Amino acid sequence: MSATAAAPSLAKAVGATFGTYCIADFLSNFLQHPTQKMDYGYFNSFLGREVGEDFWGTRTQHIVGVAGCLALTDHTSQALFQKVLKKELCFAKSPAAFVAHTFLFIFSGVTLYVAGDAAFNPNHEGKRLEEFKEGTYCSYVGSNTAWFEPYVPLAVAKVAGPAAAGTWLGSSLLPATLAYTTVKGVGWNDWGNSGLNDIELKLNGLKK
């Protein structure tokens, strides 16, 4: 199949991955901050919450930005591994390669987001390089915790059966949600009352 002919199906696959990662990031906030109110920027107005920034520095920026970067690096990494392996990248057939792919696409995707945030977020004016360096380190630390992601469907199969493991929920959304939770939680110490921005501290009655 030519590149032109394959483009629509690839775009559809990347779009589906982007949607899954957006939902996974949103859901991970409930695991990391089960009792805290989150800052979704502009969307706070629909939740009866104060709006600080409409986009920059909010959970919405993170949800959309990280999902977009990860969708790109996920499919790029898969294509590169398949080119080297000369076969479809599959955890069952190539577990070591798949785990390596998992780390590489998460680290590169999150770091790509960190670079974009450092470069364009107006809140980082005057400290962009420092933000990039710190974010890259956090990305590396957090990405090392996501090694378990390919094993989640296997655990689902053990508990709920192969049919459940083969669904979008068991094979894609749950693994991604748990990976988001550990990458953000461990990499950025984003748990409970930690890792909150100024608006979130205010919404939850906490001092800076």
Can I get a quick summary?
The chain has 208 residues and is mostly helical.
Largest sheet: none
H/E series, N to C? Answer: HHHHHHHH
Number of DSSP E strands: 0
Radius of gyration from the alpha-carbon trace, in angstroms: 18 Å
Query: Which class of secondary structure composition applies to the elements?
Result: mainly alpha
Helix count equals 8
The helix content is 55-70%
Distance between the termini: 56 Å
Query: Averaging pLDDT over every residue, what do you get?
Result: 96
Proportion of residues in extended strands: under 5%
Tell me the overall shape: globular
Spans of at least 5 consecutive residues with low confidence: none
Structure description:
- It is a single chain.
- The chain is mainly alpha-helical.
- Helix content is 66%, strand content 0%.
- It has helices at residues 3-32, 59-85, 95-120, 128-143, 152-160, 162-165, 168-187, 198-203.
- Helix 5 packs across helix 7 (168-187).
- The longest helix is centred in the N-terminal third of the chain and has 30 residues, at 3-32.
- 31% of the residues are buried.
Which features would summarize this protein structure in a list?
208 residues; mainly alpha; globular
Topology summary:
Layout: H1 3-32, H2 59-85, H3 95-120, H4 128-143, H5 152-160, H6 162-165, H7 168-187, H8 198-203
Helix pairs in contact: 1-2, 1-7, 2-3, 3-4, 4-7, 5-7
